[in-house]
Design brief:
Layout: H1 3-25, E1 46-47, E2 54-55, E3 69-73, H2 94-102, E4 104-108, H3 120-128, E5 134-136, H4 145-151, H5 166-174, H6 176-181, E6 205-210, H7 211-216, H8 225-238, E7 245-246, H9 259-262, E8 271-274, E9 277-280, H10 285-299, H11 312-321, E10 326-330, H12 331-340, E11 348-351, E12 377-379, H13 386-394, H14 399-407, E13 414-417, E14 420-423, H15 425-428, H16 436-443, H17 462-471, H18 488-514, H19 519-532, H20 535-550
Helix pairs in contact: 1-3, 10-18, 11-12, 18-20
């Protein structure tokens, strides 16, 4: 490994260790076997792999590879491990079916990387210079972005090999906005992406309320902050609650999870876009007002005093048991609450995003982006058979692959009904007793891999769909900050400044809400400290990156 690459990886490891400590304070040689590859789907003259003999005949590639081949990938565990899965699912387990359909077996060469940040173990893998054929990581988070990862010799540029992934290119032709997301700023392709194609898949967290209590008190689902406050008081008084509202404090800054609530103040954390201008939430006037409102709820004991320290399991338990009547939760936890109260009068509703009185719009909600760089798979520079690797990854973007990755095995978990894929009773009433979501997780690829995530709500029971529907806010797509890439200089500015900014903001939010700080007396000092940490220089970088993103090809 050259000195430049080594220094970059060392700096990444040091940054990761530093970031982790701040947060806590608040292999084998890769091999590719099988020299025979599939054949081109375009009919053009190609070479087999990167080293095979040239063929001048117009040939058609088809799955599976014959003979089967192996490719290596960075993972902590074998994807085929079914030791913790009911034997009834083994024959239709998605990874086993994927291997059968493609004729490709994946050999694990550790280590997994994080969805949003590269793990220390993965960075050490890069430092070793001994990479697997396929590397799954968030290359947007690489210092200097995916272009730097290509320049430094970790992964290949995919643009010259488009003939080997025609299905994915067809997807981009049908969705030019997705194509804009997955490129570098100079329009180069670098990985096979995980795409949340179903609009419903963008939102999985929101506010939920006890509908049976509202009915008993002749109240409606609140649509304003004043109405919400009155509901808190009514629940607390009528049901003798210690507090009415609970959630994990991290939702105030993570994944826009509390954005449906802060939407009433025209702000969310951290960055958002308004009419092409990038905003940093804590610098907006609405942040101060929202902190004051949260502090008021906390002081009145309407907000759970334990919220700075509790986790999702505790929130679920409190909401399921009736200790509180309102919570911010992920949908799976809400489902758990409902199932725990099956056979009773327990009933819940989702609370829609609140409108900002100044604009009349509900701007924000929880939101997973269509593409954020997570779970994509790149082909490494150590791969000896680029064609085979690309064709293998392309399978899940074919029509057949998309059906499989979403619905599982035809004739088992789904059937075609009037030309439409439809889940079968295998999903809805599986003899193992597994829930529809659990069954889908066994038989389909679905998430955390280079796929398109369709039919997000298709496997949900009706009561879950009703809650989820109220959380979805289409306006958020117009305000979400996209998955931009930074230049090396920009990455250095963000790296140097934003860790301090982010850590300080999280600590300050906790202090404002719990009354350690007061927005009347301490807010100006808070803003001054942000300025001293270089918040404007970071905001300028985010704006420049956004402007380049907006100019990309579609």
């Amino acid at each position: 490994m050259n000195q430049k690459k080594l220094l970059r990886v060392i700096s990444m490891i040091m940054l990761l260790v530093l970031t982790t400590s701040l947060l806590l304070s608040c292999q084998s040689t890769p091999t590719t076997t099988g020299s025979t590859t599939g054949q081109t789907t375009t009919g053009a003259t190609t070479t087999k792999g990167t080293t095979g003999a040239t063929t001048t005949e117009k040939e058609v590639f088809s799955y599976p590879f014959d003979p089967p081949i192996k490719l290596t990938i960075n993972r902590d565990n074998s994807p085929y491990d079914v030791s913790n899965i009911d034997p009834a699912f083994h024959d239709v387990f998605a990874w086993n079916v994927y291997k059968e359909k493609t004729g490709v077996e994946l050999e694990v060469v550790g280590a997994s990387s994080g969805a949003y940040e590269m793990s220390e173990s993965f960075l050490l893998l890069l430092a070793s210079g001994d990479y697997p054929d396929l590397m799954q990581a968030n290359w947007i988070r690489f210092p200097g972005g995916p272009q730097a990862a290509m320049d430094d010799g970790y992964i290949i540029e995919l643009t010259p090999y488009q003939e080997y992934f025609p299905a994915l290119m067809q997807v981009y032709a049908e969705h030019p906005d997705w194509y804009q997301m997955v490129q570098t700023d100079d329009n180069k392709l670098y990985n096979f992406p995980y795409l949340r194609g179903d609009p419903d898949a963008h939102t999985e967290t929101g506010m939920v309320i006890r509908q049976d209590w509202l009915d008993a008190l002749n109240l409606e689902v609140p649509t304003t902050i004043d109405e919400l406050t009155e509901v808190f008081r009514a629940f607390k008084n009528e049901y003798g609650l210690a507090s009415a509202f609970t959630f994990e404090m991290r939702w105030l800054w993570l994944e826009w999870a509390s954005a449906g609530l802060s939407s009433a103040y025209g702000y969310t954390y951290p960055f958002f876009v308004n009419d092409g201008e990038v905003k940093f939430g804590p610098l907006e006037p609405g942040f101060k007002a929202f902190m004051a409102q949260m502090a008021s709820w906390y002081e009145e004991q309407l907000l759970d005093p334990d919220f700075p320290s509790i986790n999702k399991a505790t929130v679920q338990s409190k909401f399921a048991s009736g200790e509180v009547g309102v919570a911010i939760q992920q949908l799976n936890n809400v489902i758990g609450c409902i199932e725990a109260n099956a056979g009773t009068d327990y009933k819940v509703s989702g609370v829609p995003s609140f409108k900002n009185p100044a604009t009349g719009d509900a701007m924000f909600s929880h939101y997973y982006q269509t593409y954020d760089g997570s779970f994509g798979v790149a082909i490494s520079t150590k791969c000896d058979d680029i064609e085979s690797a690309a064709r293998f990854l392309d399978y899940l973007y074919t029509e057949e692959g998309q059906l499989f990755s979403t619905y599982g095995t035809e004739g088992v978990s789904y059937e075609m009904v009037n030309g439409e894929p439809t889940f079968t009773d295998y999903l809805w009433n599986n003899p193992t007793g597994a829930t529809p979501g659990e069954v889908k997780g066994r038989v389909s690829m679905g998430a955390n891999y280079a796929v398109i995530r369709w039919a997000f709500t298709g496997h949900m029971l009706d009561y879950a769909k009703v809650v989820h529907k109220e959380w979805v806010n289409e306006n958020m797509a117009n305000h979400v900050y996209p998955a931009t890439t930074f230049t090396s200089i920009e990455a250095a500015i963000v790296s140097r400044n934003f860790t301090n900014i982010d850590t300080y903001c999280k600590e300050s939010i906790a202090k404002f809400v719990t009354g350690q700080w007061n927005t009347t007396t301490d807010y100006d000092a808070f803003i001054s400290q942000l300025e001293s940490y270089g918040v404007q220089s970071v905001l300028d970088v985010y704006q420049a990156a956004y402007d380049r993103f907006a100019a990309r090809s579609r």
